[in-house]
Design brief:
This protein is of the alpha/beta class. The protein is built from eight helices and nine strands. A hairpin with a 2-residue loop joins strand 5 and strand 6. The radius of gyration is 19 Å and the shape is globular.
Length: about 210
């Protein structure tokens, strides 16, 4: 059985990572497992523990850090975010593709542990649009939004460290592009070489 591929969807806060990931999973033809992140931030309206995030207290999260239970974690605007390790590793070993939806800081840590992961940067059409989306949440004060925009500028500069970049100007178009990336990755020689060689050689020998 071939090992699954780890896809990392990352980008600035407010760019729409969660919206794009949800739209991707609404399509019947996806074969991805979503790796749920843990966070110490409070749930937003409609978010469910164990579905959108594992919501933890700060003490609970720091205990998980001390037990080395994360692939990556970061503190972002006063809250921790992290990716639990065991679930991801078990799914990949079982041949399942896994997608992580994480902040840019966390993506850099994932790269150190999973060097063969596929990194997709989700970018906003503009900083003006990003500000509009952040303000549209209605969940944060102006100084927090300003901090997120300053961070976003630094993160956009890091785009060159990713394998792919997708502009989220339209959610369904962004999902189309991400599905194209996923499909293309499965045709990389390193993933299909052994099975393809065996098929070609067995067919050839059988024909003789």
């Amino acid at each position: 059985m071939s090992r699954g591929i780890l896809f990392v969807l990352s980008g600035p806060s407010g760019v729409g990572k969660g919206t794009v990931r949800s739209a991707l999973f609404e399509r019947d033809n996806h074969k991805l497992i979503y790796s749920i992140s843990a966070t110490t931030r409070l749930p937003r309206a409609g978010e469910v523990d164990g579905v959108d995030y594992f919501f933890k207290t700060r003490d609970e999260f720091e205990a998980m850090i001390n037990n080395s239970e994360f692939i990556e974690y970061a503190e972002f605007v006063g809250n921790y975010y992290g990716t639990p390790k065991k679930y991801v590793e078990d799914q990949l070993a079982a041949g399942q593709d896994v997608i992580l939806e994480i902040e840019v800081q966390g993506a850099a840590q994932v790269h150190k542990m999973f060097t063969d992961a596929v990194f997709i940067f989700l970018a906003p059409p503009s900083l003006k649009e990003l500000r509009k989306r952040l303000e549209g949440r209605g969940t944060e004060e102006d100084d927090v939004i300003a901090g997120r925009l300053e961070t976003a500028i630094r993160e956009i500069i890091l785009m060159s460290e990713y394998d792919y970049a997708v502009i989220n100007d339209d959610v369904q178009t962004a999902v189309d592009k991400i599905q194209t990336i996923i499909q293309a990755e499965h045709y990389r020689v390193k993933y299909i070489e052994d099975s393809l060689k065996n098929k070609i050689l067995l067919d050839t020998l059988g024909g003789n």
